[in-house]
C-alpha cells in the first residue's frame, strides 16, 4: 500500500530506563476530577458522572522541554496530572480488571488556553481550541506499572519558578483510576497506546514566557517545562 504523501511520524513518548518508546494512539482527559479544582472553576464538586475530552496524539511532548507560548491566547494555564498509559485494549472493562490493561504511568501537564476555553463554555461550544493545541501535553517518561508504587495515593504537585502552586494527593481524585478508566471503556474500546490524563488538583493559574514549570507525582516521576517566546 502507498499513500498520496508521506505518512506523519508515529507520536510517542519516552519510556523510563529504556531506549524503547511508547506509541501514542489517543489522548483522553478527565475533566474536573478533584473537588477543590471544581470549586475554583465555579462548579459543583459533587460526584457526578465523569466527563472526558481529547487532545491529538501529537500534542504530547517529551520532557524536559521548552514550549513556545501558544497562539491566540493571553491566558495560558498549567494543570498538573497523573498520566495512565494503556497497554492492553478492551471494552466494558470491570474496575477490578483495569490494572491488567495499564502498561504504565507518568506525570504530565494539561496546558490550557483558558480564555478560549471560557469563551467556548459560555457559547456552549466544544473545548478543542482551549485544550487541543500544539504542544499542549508535555509528559515525563512513562514508567512501567510494575515499577509504580501506587496510582491511588501519593503527592502530586507543581511549581512555577520554584514557587509551589498545586499540592495535593492522588487520594483526592473524585473518580479513581480504576473507576474512570472502567467508565471510559464503556463509551469506546480502549486500545494499546491510549493515554489518559486523569484531572488536576486546585491551584491552576497563568504562566508567561520565561516561566519554568516543575512538578511531579510521588514515586512515579518529575518533569520540567520552560515557556518560550510567543509563536
From TrEMBL:
<dbReference type="Pfam" id="PF01557">
    <property type="entry name" value="FAA_hydrolase"/>
</dbReference>
<feature type="domain" description="Fumarylacetoacetase-like C-terminal">
    <location>
        <begin position="27"/>
        <end position="227"/>
    </location>
</feature>
<protein>
    <submittedName>
        <fullName>Fumarylacetoacetate hydrolase family protein</fullName>
    </submittedName>
</protein>
<dbReference type="GO" id="GO:0018773">
    <property type="term" value="F:acetylpyruvate hydrolase activity"/>
</dbReference>
<keyword id="KW-0378">Hydrolase</keyword>
<keyword id="KW-0479">Metal-binding</keyword>
<dbReference type="InterPro" id="IPR036663">
    <property type="entry name" value="Fumarylacetoacetase_C_sf"/>
</dbReference>
<dbReference type="GO" id="GO:0046872">
    <property type="term" value="F:metal ion binding"/>
</dbReference>
<dbReference type="InterPro" id="IPR011234">
    <property type="entry name" value="Fumarylacetoacetase-like_C"/>
</dbReference>
Amino acid at each position: 500500500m502507498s499513500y498520496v504523501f508521506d505518512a506523519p511520524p508515529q507520536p510517542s513518548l519516552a519510556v523510563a530506563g529504556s531506549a524503547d518508546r511508547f506509541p501514542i494512539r489517543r489522548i483522553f482527559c478527565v475533566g474536573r476530577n478533584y473537588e477543590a479544582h471544581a470549586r475554583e472553576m465555579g462548579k459543583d464538586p459533587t460526584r457526578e458522572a465523569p466527563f472526558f475530552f481529547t487532545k491529538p496524539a501529537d500534542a504530547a511532548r517529551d520532557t524536559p522541554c521548552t514550549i513556545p507560548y501558544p497562539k491566540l491566547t493571553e491566558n495560558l494555564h498549567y494543570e498538573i496530572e497523573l498520566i495512565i498509559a494503556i497497554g492492553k485494549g478492551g471494552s466494558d472493562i470491570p474496575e477490578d480488571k483495569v490494572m491488567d490493561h495499564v502498561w504504565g504511568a507518568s506525570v504530565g501537564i494539561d496546558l490550557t488556553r483558558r480564555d478560549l476555553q471560557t469563551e467556548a463554555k459560555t457559547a456552549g461550544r466544544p473545548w478543542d481550541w482551549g485544550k487541543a493545541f500544539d504542544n499542549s501535553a508535555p509528559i515525563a517518561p512513562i514508567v512501567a506499572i510494575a515499577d509504580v508504587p501506587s496510582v491511588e495515593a501519593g503527592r502530586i504537585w507543581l511549581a512555577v519558578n520554584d514557587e509551589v502552586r498545586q499540592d495535593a494527593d492522588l487520594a483526592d481524585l473524585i473518580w479513581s483510576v480504576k473507576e474512570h478508566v472502567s467508565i471510559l471503556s464503556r463509551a469506546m474500546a480502549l486500545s494499546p497506546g491510549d493515554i489518559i490524563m486523569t484531572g488536576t488538583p486546585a491551584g491552576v493559574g497563568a504562566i508567561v514566557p520565561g516561566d519554568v514549570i516543575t512538578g511531579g507525582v510521588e514515586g512515579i516521576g518529575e518533569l520540567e517545562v520552560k515557556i518560550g517566546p510567543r509563536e
